[in-house]
Specification:
CATH architecture of the largest domain: Alpha Horseshoe
Order of helices and strands: HHHHHHHHHHHHHH
CATH topology of the largest domain: Serine Threonine Protein Phosphatase 5, Tetratricopeptide repeat
Largest sheet: none
Shape: globular
Amino acid sequence: MKDLGEIKKFLNENKSESGKKFQEKIVYTRLTIYGISIPKLRKFASVLAKNGFVPDDIEPTSSEEITLKGLVLSKQKWSDLKVIEEYEKFNSHIDNWATCDTITPSLKQLKTESGRRYFLSLLENSNFYKKRIGVIGLMAHFLDDKNLDEIINALVSLSNTLSYKITYSFAGTTEEKIENLSEYYVKMAISWYLCTLICKNYDYGKTALQKFTDKFIRNKTISKCHDSFRLSPNQKEELKQLKI
């Protein structure tokens, strides 16, 4: 039988002041942060799922609880459509890159045509963090997709809806950072996607990169590629010539 107090007990017993302070330096969220590590959350999510918990059993009142909802969802033997339905119930609470990037790649059930269509649809959502979920989902599950041209064109279309800002301010209150940096985290996600694609399929990725005219995205992608050990010095030099 499920003990709903089990979750609060876990949060209180595993909270870390040092972990909280570290996360608050790099993660800007309206939600409470307990400072619990991702490995601990993954392990506990497995216990919860084994004990019959489903996402609806977990309250979306802290960063860790949102992450647990997603990780418990990833453990369910549900159809892709059911997973999409359940993810939509709580992913509007996601207001930071870290929660998005922990949950989305874990949803292996969405490596399907319905999942691909779902992530593509999120690129057109008005919520910037849902846009990031879409980009991260496509990167995590569909880099080998047979419809890669469609995905690249969708990402180009997304990039064309964003501003041409090349610098973003990290100053201000947490609320201001969430609002001011929301677009930044979408651009960073696209850059990460492109870098990963280039490292996996250099010729195709290099051609795809040239479709992006946004200076931030183009140059950030090249910068990320420069730091990669998966590309040769010659490849990095070729990419450097594409900076704008």
